[in-house]
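Deliverable D5.2: sample structural annotation.
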Amino acid sequence: MDEEKKIRHIFKKLNEIYDIRTFRDHDPYQVLVRTILSQRTRDENTDKATDALFEVFPDIHAVADAPIEEIQKLIKPAGFYRVKAGRIKDVSQILLDEYGGEVPNDMDELLKLPGVGRKTANCVFVFAFQEAAIPVDTHVHRISNRWGLANTKNPEDTEQVLMKKVPKDLWVDLNDLMVQFGQTICRPIGPQCDRCPISDCCDYDLEMLDN
């Protein structure tokens, strides 16, 4: 099986067991804030913090004007709340001052914002603008290396490899499918290889069987 066929086979199998999740809001600003909040925490904590923040301060103007202490209290479930609150305030003010309150649909401009790296920017492209990009988080990085699609040490290198290997029509759904797969089967510790639907084309599973 050539590499493109392998990749399409994998994604066909993942699509059979997972539904692509519909994100509650495609507003670029809320997606950006949610992604900043999601750094180094679980999805459920991100949801709590995001909901709490936007219930009290519903838009970019309200967030930019909000006391930093109030933002910290509201986003505390997401962890690292002092750092994240500062970044959200700074990003909000920069967007108002320099971009007319709009989130730029441009990688170079997004990367200028405090706390925004390639993963966060790519999340904005995919989940806000529905544009082809590959957000590489810990799940995508780990699983890509286990599958043998990448042999990389960091998410940035993994993104570059996947952009070359994965057909572009699969990019938008890649992160969501792989995150669900990483949360349920291909876990960081104790991956459930015995019930994996793609164990027939996974280098990690073959290595386990050889030991």
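Annotation notes: The longest helix spans residues 81-99. The mean pLDDT is 93.
The annotation will be released with the project's public dataset once the embargo ends.
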